[in-house]
Amino acid sequence: MGRRVGFIINPIAGMGGRVALKGTDGVVEEAIRRGARPIAEDVARLFLRELEGYAESKDVEFITGPGPLGEDVLREFGFAFEVLRHRKVAYKKVGDVEIPDTTAEDTKELGGRMLGKADIIVFAGGDGTARDVFSAVGKKIPILGVPTGVKMFSGVFASSPEDAARLLIEFIRGNARIVERDVMDLDEEAFRHDEVKPRHFGKALTPYAELLLQGAKEPTKTDEAEDVRATVEALAEELEDGIYFLGAGSTVKALKDILGIDGTLLGVDVVEIKNRRARLLVKDAAEKDLLRFVDRSPKVIVTVIGGLGFLFGRGNQQFSAKVLRGIPKENIIVVAAPSKVAKGIVRVYTGDREVDEKLRGYIKVRVSPWMEKMVRVV
Question: Is 260 left (phi over 0), alpha (psi -120 to 50) or beta?
């Protein structure tokens, strides 16, 4: 039996990640000025390429938007599709980059028009796109996110574009349970100023299969905060001279405070330690800043994003495949509260299979001043 799948691409999603803007809403021109380029269509291609490898995909008919909202990418593949032509999408030139002139209203309108036509809506974007789709369809139809944005703290996203395709196939086969998952978004302007102001928009219907759907963002538990502080204090005493890339999150921010640097809560900072003294070299570094130091054998200190379970690929896209390709796995130090690694599994997704494969296997996670836990990286 064939399935009709709504498919929406937010063509500017994710552009702010590698250039340290922590989002794209309202800052597309600044992202381009810093060297960002559109990535959403490339991520959507990964989803469709994986999907076409399954026999069931032959019976899928997509319902999509015009041009960059889905049509352009689908034309590169052999899927049947129908285009909902609500308007012709114009383009605008920003510097030397041409980008689609689309808005949240395009996503909302397409989502609403897909009701009664599609069995499920798959969208490529971030938390803002999830919010827009949900605002249009509520709980009338399941939705599934292909992770393309910067934050992606909502629970409606697959762990990777390829996992989104696998999860859609499980939905088509009737093997995926339909569950309710949180749709969340952060105030991006506050986020850029190291303030976490989450807003819960509701619970969407989403297909679920083990290990294919990510969790939703969770903070460090209050009763663990003191233990985390003790853990990073012990880690700070053990750091040797050299260059360090210090990642995002409250756990690593505690380390930055102990080292006495004015580091960011939600960004990546480059620090040099010499004779047990720390010096901040780059605050809120972008991908290009990290690449300047890769040949100096830096060590990376990151934590696990609670609920999401990611080391790389959520909220820290500055650690791109290009950056991580030049860093040995043994130079990656992970510190986290015990609750964040209770399942014994953490995730990575850089979009580069070779780099992801290098990171997979097992990694040590510092969970207390005196103990490390071996955790599997998938």
Answer: left
CB 361 within 8 A of CB 349: no
> For residue 274, what are its two tokens?
């010499």
97/95 Cα distance (integer angstroms) = 6
pLDDT tens-digit readout, 333-357: 999 998 888 888 999 988 888 999 9
CA distances from 312 to 56, 120, 126, 165, 293 (A): 31, 28, 16, 20, 19
Q: 93: exposed, middle or buried (C-beta count within 10 Å: 0-12, 13-18, 19+)?
A: exposed
CA-to-CA distance for 43 and 125, rounded, in angstroms? Answer: 9
Residue 83's Cβ-count burial label (10 Å; 0-12, 13-18, 19+) is middle
Query: What is the per-residue pLDDT for 97?
Result: 76
Q: What is the maximum alpha-carbon separation in the chain?
A: 68
Helix, coil or strand: residue 93 = strand
Kindly tell me the burial class for residue 182, based on how many C-beta atoms sit within 10 Å of its own C-beta (0-12, 13-18, 19 or more): buried
Residue 91: per-residue pLDDT: 79
Of 199, 85, 189, which is closest to residue 134 (Cα–Cα)?
199
Amino acid at 135: S
pLDDT digits (tens, 9 = 90+) for 216-257: 555 555 567 778 889 999 999 999 999 999 999 889 999 999
Find all residues with CB under 8 Å of 165, minimum gap 6, and list them: 47, 48, 50, 51, 54
**Burial readout 201-222 (b: 16 or more C-beta within 10 A, e: otherwise):** bebbbbbbbeebbbbbbeebee
Using only the alpha carbons of the chain, give its radius of gyration. 21
Question: What's the rounded Cα separation, in Å, for the pair 161 and 351?
Answer: 9
Q: Which two tokens stand for residue 308?
A: 């999401």
Residues of the chain with confidence (pLDDT) below 70? 1, 16-28, 31, 36, 86, 151, 186-198, 211, 214-223, 306-307
